[in-house]
Structures are given as C-alpha cells and as structure tokens.
Design a protein that fits this description.
- By secondary structure, the chain is of the alpha/beta class.
- The protein has two domains: 361 residues, Rossmann fold, CATH 3.40.50; 90 residues, GMP Synthetase, Chain A, domain 3.
- 27% of the residues lie in helices and 27% in strands.
- The strands form five sheets. The chain has a nine-stranded mixed β-sheet with strand order 12-13-14-15-16-21-20-18-17, with helices on both faces. Strands 6-7-5-3-4-8-9-19 form an eight-stranded mixed β-sheet. The chain has a four-stranded mixed β-sheet with strand order 2-1-11-10.
- Helix 8 links the parallel strand 12 and strand 13.
- Helix 1 crosses helix 6 and helix 10 packs across helix 11.
- The longest helix is centred in the middle third of the chain and has 14 residues.
- The protein starts with a helix and ends with a helix.
C-alpha cells in the first residue's frame, strides 16, 4: 500500500482537530483502532473531513478492506438504497444512531462503527480496488469509480512534481475528501506536508477564517464558484501572510477573475495552480501555473508528469493516458469482482491543442445543442456572457433544441442585455433565448453548480 507507506514515512506529519486544537502524530493515528491487517470486506465511510473520519480512513487503508468514501450529507434515503445494494461489512456514519441489520461496535473510546449482523461475504472483491469514489456529477444514488492504491499513488507522484508542498506546510481539509480533488489534496499533503487540519468548516463561514488565523494555513483549494465568491468579498485586495499557494479545479475561471488572481499573486508573491481532472483519472490530468492565468480562460495547461493527451480526430474528444486511470464503474456489489484499467480515458470534453503546446477545452460532448440545425456549444455561450458582463455567473441550458435557457442570479443585470449579447455575438434571434433570474444557483456537494438539477427543473417548465 504505497500511499500509506509514504504517509507513514512522513514522520513530521500530524493531524489537528480544528475544533479542539488537539494534534495527533501520524504514527499514532494510522493504527489507533487495532484492526486486523488481513481482514477483508467493504467499508462505507461517510466523510465530513473531521478527525474521526480521517482516523477511520487511515486505519482501514492499512488493511485488506476496500473503502467507499462517501459524503456524510448524502440524503438518508440514498444511504439506505446504496447500503441495500452493496451490503457493506462496516459502516462509519456518526450522524446515525442505528442502522437496520447492523450493530454498533466500539473500536476506541471515541470511534464507533456499525458492523453487519451475521456477515457473509457474497462477492470476492478484486484485490486492486482500494478506494471507491462517486463521480463528481452524481446526483442521488452514486455511481462509484473503482480506484487502486497504485493509481492513486501514481497520480499523487505526478501532482508532487509541480505542487510546491513543503514539510512546514499547514493544510486545511477545506475540500471534502469524498471527491477526488479533495482526496488528492489529502494524499499529496499527507506525503509531504507537516500538518493536516481536519475541519468541516466552509470557506464562506467566519469560523473558517478564525481557524486560518489560528493555525496559519499555507494553502487553499476550491472550485471556480468559490473563487468568484472570494472575489466578491474582497479577498484578493489584501494579503493573507501565511498563504503560499492556491489550487483550483472543477471548471473554468472567467478571464476577468483570472487577471485579478494573477495580479494578487504577483503583488503578494503567491502561487496559483489551475488544474484539470476527473474522478476516473484518479485525480489531476493537467495543470497551469500562475503565469498560465493570462492564457485564454478555457486553457487547462499541459499534462501532469507521466501523462499524455491526444484529441480524437473525428469527435474532438480529449483522451488521456496515465497509470492513474480508474478500473471501471460500480453500480452494484457484483461489479466489485472486476478491475479493468483501460489504456485511455475518454474525458467527455472536446478540446484543441495550441501551438504553444497548451490544451484548451472547447466544451462537453453532452453540452452541445442544435438550434435549428446550428451546432451550439453551451459552455462557449456561458464564457461569452461571463466575459461581457464583469465575470457574473450564468448557466445556459438546452430547451429541447428549440431555445437556449439562460439563468443568472444578479438582479442588477438587465435581461435584455443578455439577449442582445447573444444576438450580437452569436447571431441568434432573441425569440430563441429565454432568460430567467433565479435567487441562487443550487450547488452539488462538491461546490460546483448542479447542472443536472437545473436541467431537470427546466424540463419540467418546458
């Protein structure tokens, strides 16, 4: 288990409970529960990024168990459905006092885990499946991505080739580790950094900034929506002395905000890493450094170390090759019997390669609509609107290939300007554009705008 071996080898590492300030050395934490290293089964870990979740994860990682890292905020109905489908041997979920068919077992004075009554192994789980993560776009009952220790380790090594992690770094777990971005932040920093601060606080909460002042965070990570909110509250106007670098993934940061972040980094001597990744890739696939922020907003940079891209000549789909690629999907328990790693990952994104060697995302294969026979990339429409209107957030949806639906959340914007912009830039008649003001954009658990939910709501209104 290469990830855990490297984490244990980082003898400088400690894990801090943000709420109490208590710090536990890695050498104590990873074996605190006294587990049998050869015991094998499936653990469902409902994560909240607090110390108890991390303690359970590290302890079970050192055994033969497979670990499904899920979000603690998953609706109870969905928890019950996925548990009925997979029938895990163990369930860690501090939110629940009882689970039918399970008994609560004390593993320590503060860790209690549900153990399945009369457990019998129904399927031999493939030995390469170490971690199961849900796909980032999942709503409802998750489809799980099968990842091996080797794939996660190889991606962590690739990230550490460019990420300036230092042994003195204090790193908050402000991105949930049940998402691959958060998991890669966790693994890379556990391998190299000095302290991991376990917190369930959100960057938009005052309590988070109180913790940052107390512990002196060295880095922050987030999706574009988070950086847009930081910009709104004036974060980039002043220095935060302890911060050395920022990371980002999960979509495009608009051109104006990229310039703002670039200026901030140069003024206060920070670094910024814009990254491109997917759960199926085991983490990150490409990255841009601070200087790359001046590239077009759709740029994703160059492949991570030992990775490579090529573009399908027929579909323009971006294809990725790396040792970190996943071993297939799981929708039910029986799917855990196999682990088949493809040589190429189909990203679902369309792309082009610039003369400078940098790759640019041009859209999603599923985000293409045909409006009266004209092929229209909804992502490009969003980019145009954001850049024309001071970086405001817009969501463009397909209304059965008959109209473009444009959603926005800033009441100060004149909807006629939106339709006029689309008319002038794309030559689309305003009668084929429907503009709607909404109170706020719904977010999925990973902080991204919940496109599937918005699309479903629009279908109900068509």
């Amino acid at each position: 288990m290469k990830i855990l071996e490297n984490v244990i080898a980082n003898k400088n590492l400690g894990f801090t409970d943000a709420s109490t300030g208590k710090t536990i050395p890695v050498g104590t934490l990873y074996r605190s529960l006294g587990l049998n290293p050869v015991e094998k089964g499936l653990l469902f870990l409902y994560n909240d990024n607090q110390l108890s979740s991390i303690e359970v994860l590290l302890n079970f990682y050192g055994t033969a168990h497979t670990i499904a890292v899920l979000g603690q905020k998953l609706h109870e109905e969905f928890k019950e459905r996925i548990e009925a489908e997979y029938r895990p041997k163990y369930i860690f979920d501090p939110q629940r006092e009882a689970i039918e068919g399970y008994s609560l077992k004390e593993f320590s004075d503060h860790i209690r885990i549900f153990a399945k009554d009369d457990y019998k192994s129904e399927v031999t789980i493939h030995p390469d499946i170490k971690i199961l993560l849900s796909t980032s776009g999942t709503t409802g009952v998750p489809k799980l991505v099968k990842l091996s220790d080797e794939s996660l380790y190889q991606n962590a090594l690739s990230i550490l080739q460019y990420m300036p992690v230092q042994e003195s770094d204090v790193v908050p777990l402000n991105v949930p580790i049940n998402f691959v971005y958060g998991f890669s932040i966790f693994t890379t920093n556990c391998m190299r950094a000095g302290r991991i601060v376990c917190t369930d606080k959100d960057i938009m909460q005052k309590a988070f900034w109180d913790e940052m002042e107390e512990y002196g965070y060295s880095t922050l990570g987030g999706v574009p929506f988070l950086y847009e909110n930081l910009n709104r509250i004036g974060f980039f106007r002043k220095d935060s002395p302890s911060l050395r670098y920022f990371t980002h993934t999960g979509g495009v940061i608009n051109a104006e905000l990229r310039k703002t972040i670039f200026s901030y980094c140069h003024e206060f001597k920070k670094e910024f890493f814009a990254q491109y990744g997917q759960t199926e890739a085991g983490g990150r696939m490409a990255y841009l450094t601070t200087e790359g922020l001046l590239e077009a907003e759709t740029s994703i940079g160059t492949p991570v170390h030992n990775g490579s891209f090529r573009i399908d000549t027929e579909t323009d789909e971006l294809l990725f090759s790396h040792m970190s690629i996943f071993g297939g999907y799981a929708n039910k328990l029986e799917d855990l019997a196999t682990y088949e790693q493809p040589s190429v990952l189909h990203t679902g994104d369309t792309a082009r390669k610039g003369e400078n060697g940098i790759y640019y995302i041009t859209g999603r294969i599923k985000r293409i609509m045909k409006l009266f026979g004209i092929r229209l990339n909804l992502d490009e429409v969003e980019f145009i609107l954001k850049n024309e209107m001071q970086g405001n957030t817009f969501v463009c949806l397909n209304a059965n290939d008959k109209k473009i639906v444009v959603l926005y959340d800033n009441p100060d914007i004149d909807p006629q300007i939106i339709t006029e912009t689309i008319k002038n830039k794309l030559r689309i008649n305003p009668q084929y554009v429907r503009v709607e003001l909404i109170e706020s954009f719904p977010l999925s658990q990973n902080g991204k705008i919940n496109y599937p939910l918005l699309q479903n709501l629009q279908h109900e209104n068509i």
